[in-house]
Amino acid sequence: MKNVLKIRPHTALILCALLAVLFWSGCAHRNQLSIPEAALPDDVFSTPGTNPCMGARVGVFAFSSPVYAADKGNRATRILCNALEATGVFKQVVFEPGIRDMTLRNLINVARIKRYDLIITGKLTQYYEGSYVEAAAVTQTIRVIRVRGGKPGLLWHASASERISPDRSTDYILFQTDGEPAPPASTLMKKNADKFVKMMLTLPPFP
């Protein structure tokens, strides 16, 4: 007669408990958001015919922003400056905060006094911090203007937008997945900054 494997009742209960733990550990994972890699800006309105960037000194002036996000324009500007410096698009990048007269005429005067070759101005037109139920959204517009060597001229003019929704929790019959909030708006600003940098590096391409 063949031997028959007998499992005692308390052993069966232990095995069932172990299987349940393994099942729940596999199901109770946190869904990870997949933030897309930066491409070119969503709208490019103007690009230069030749590359004017090599060796340029650039003054970057604080972005204007909506009333409900009055302090976020500076944040967006600093993030763009960091992206420009990290990739070496220009020889020197200088953030110029605290300019009260933000008319283009005054900015050009300031730039010429400080011997900048180019200036960058911008607008933060949309800013929403996300949550577990609301999407995060940021829209920015920039202009890159040549201010040295004759009449000022527009080189690049573009707009970039990012919007990422939260990953909400999902209820299944036997388990529930944990949700993820929308990423911080500063993450979306970085994505937009990367788009602008890529535009300057590729439209037109560096020789």
Describe the structure.
This protein is α/β, with parallel strands linked by helices and 207 residues long. Helix content is 30%, strand content 25%. Helix 2 links the parallel strand 2 and strand 3.
Radius of gyration (CA) equals: 26 Å
Q: How would you classify the helix and strand content by structural class? A: alpha/beta
Beta-strand percentage range: 25-35%
CATH homologous superfamily caption: ABC-type transport auxiliary lipoprotein component
Q: At the third CATH level, what is the topology name?
A: Rossmann fold
The chain-level mean pLDDT equals 82
Number of domains: 1
Question: What is the level-2 CATH architecture name?
Answer: 3-Layer(aba) Sandwich
Total beta strands: 8
Termini gap: 85 Å
Strand order of the largest sheet: 1-6-5-4-2-3
Q: Tell me the name of the CATH class.
A: Alpha Beta
Poorly predicted regions:
1-7, 18-36
Query: What's the assembly state of these chains?
Result: single chain
Described by strand count, sense and barrel closure, the largest sheet is: 6 strands, mixed
Q: What does the overall shape look like?
A: elongated
Range of helix content: 25-40%
